[in-house]
Amino acid sequence: MKTIAIDAMGGENAPQAIVDAIVKLRKEGSKTNYVLFGDDAKIKASFPKDDDLKNIKIVKTSEVIADEDEPVRAIRSKKDSSMVVAARYVKEAKADALFSMGNTGALLACGIFIIGRIKGVDRPALMPTMPSAKGDQGFNIIDVGANSQSKPEYLVQWAQMASYYAKVIRKVNNPSVALLNNGAESDKGDPLHQEAYNLLKETDLNFIGNIEGNEVMEGKADVVVTDGFTGNAVLKAIEGTASVILHMLKDSLLNNGLMPKIGAALAKPGLNALKKRFDTARHGGAVLLGINAPVVKTHGRSNERPIYYTLKQIDLMLDQDLVGKYREFFKESN
Amino acid sequence: MKTIAIDAMGGENAPQAIVDAIVKLRKEGSKTNYVLFGDDAKIKASFPKDDDLKNIKIVKTSEVIADEDEPVRAIRSKKDSSMVVAARYVKEAKADALFSMGNTGALLACGIFIIGRIKGVDRPALMPTMPSAKGDQGFNIIDVGANSQSKPEYLVQWAQMASYYAKVIRKVNNPSVALLNNGAESDKGDPLHQEAYNLLKETDLNFIGNIEGNEVMEGKADVVVTDGFTGNAVLKAIEGTASVILHMLKDSLLNNGLMPKIGAALAKPGLNALKKRFDTARHGGAVLLGINAPVVKTHGRSNERPIYYTLKQIDLMLDQDLVGKYREFFKESN
Question: How far is A232 from A234, CA to CA, in rounded Å?
Fold first, then answer.
């Protein structure tokens, strides 16, 4: 039996959106157990009145980690927070995975300091699945900010974990792996990236070499490996650019007289198709890889839909025993 | 009298697009002298038959640096290339500025090794002007890739040069300067960015603190300062994302039946307004700051329009004696 520990207080739409996603999953036949941590009255009230709460457990906690809290300090001082208590449940093997929409830094700290690293993994890293120009399949990018300082060896471990994830969770055949760098040639970049290139070349990964920032969204690689500082900046730049352009597009269509307005209405099926191709929800949340259990983060503004897909993603990671496979791999390679 | 040395062989549309831009500028009354380097017959043939070639000088060169050439090797071995000979003209004070659409790395090498650094500037850096959600004004971002390794002190010098550029060339009143980092708080980032933050705080720049990748395109700062590795990745990620989305938009409007097609036609004024707001041409090219003369690069696929604006931008830099002002500043501060 799988059990997912859920911080039911993090995120703008918590706990209602989380409960809605769970209700939908159970209707579809999910047998997973969900333990929700937080304000028990509020969580209970979010379920439909006639719900039998089958497979649901609610654990009352008295504190909440806010987005503006300093992560490490917060998980030390707010010991009865929904996120920390949920993480402790996973540590004590009362749950198999941790999900939260709250403070990203605090969730990373919960993963690293409470649940703990997989033996042999130097540094856990954060990995979302992004949409690309190639459409449905998307790509993984790791690390997008769990580490502000990286070493070449970390990048190799991240590439190994991400490649395996792409294969068994996203069902990509022989995933291609590329190093984000400032040029195509093998000698490009600073010493960190030059050395990472050389190490990646020696692995049995399907390493296709360097990739530049403009090629990432084209879907040139199934897995993009990068140091956490650059990865963080690039991921945010992609999100910011997409948001600014789509906002400007809407604005330009609505504020240039009647014709563009009518045009936009007629073009709706096309615009919806664009929206669908750029849909990040279907891929689930960002995973903190290298931790002794799946730890997954979804955007704080998420509504039911991305949460639904994230809970399915966690189910799949548990079914595939992803963390167990990582444990074996890093045991053998040490 | 101002003289601009132009590598007339670099770029897909050279030399015709360059000649068209010059013809237009002269029609508008430009008194600037243009020296064009390259295939003299081809350059001459690009001018209208009845052109008196006033203010034009053509210098015949026999080689061209290709985009795929290794930069430093290329400028050493192709001594009679249009780019190298043009750079030497500037070095020898026969011209005041250098413009090229060719190999970016080779142009940086020409700037650094042939024309030379301003005394007191540790490392020259590349700086484009980007459009932002705020509209017309845009923002500067420095360094976007002249340096793959950076030190905190470099970032401070870049911020100083970029801030002055924003003030006198872009006419921004008291330009705000932000540091690209992985969080808002002052202690964020790796040691490089933490130290850069502390140094920037001590300057008399209008330093507004850290900025994250998603805020760059929102236009939160007039000048974004970043290490060359991250800046390169972020700039390319922005360009790649914009290109992928606009391409997908076109595709979605044209391939979803008749209605979106008609809609797109009606929406055209709105889509054109979007295009105009996202117009990078008006801001001119990317400038290599810290060199003893303006050295400016425009995209290799540029047509007449961005070249026209870039030549005007160079005129303005010469009129304002930008490089002279930098020289004074770094003389005093050393």
Answer: 6
